[in-house]
Amino acid sequence: MHYRKRPVMIEAIRFDGTNYEEVKSFIGQSTLCSNLSVVIPTLEGNMVAQKGDYIIKSVHGEFYPCKPDIFTETYEEVEYLNILDTL
Predict the structure, then answer these.
(1) Residue 62 DSSP class
(2) Neighbours of 44 (CB within 10 A)
(3) pLDDT tens digit string along 3-14?
(4) Of 4, 11, 29, 54, whose Cβ has the fewest other Cβ atoms within 10 Å?
């Protein structure tokens, strides 16, 4: 059998070593951080996102780090219009 991943919309932020406040706001809590890494609490325990990694919020609201090469192979940026703004 073959399977295909269902299309799903996620939110993500890229940790650049200087945007800790933005990351903290994104994950909704304070955590350990340096200019090289940030600790991300996950369901499996704490994981470390390195500078350049993406932090993904899944459809169920969990956060986890993702390496940039895997992120670009798996996700593409979505642009959409807010229809309510045009009414």
Answers:
(1) -
(2) 8
(3) 887 788 899 999
(4) 4
| Token pair recorded at residue 42 | 């996950």
String of DSSP letters for 20-56: HHHHHHHHTS---B-SSEEEEEETTEEEEEETT-EEE
- Structure tokens, 38: 């940030």
Rounded to whole angstroms, the Cα distance separating 37 from 5 reads 29
Could you give the 3-state DSSP secondary structure of residue 69?
Answer: helix
pTM of the model: 0.81
Nearest to 57, CA basis, from 45, 65, 67, 68: 65
pLDDT above 90 as % of the chain: 59
Give the N- to C-terminal CA distance of the chain in Å, as an integer. 46
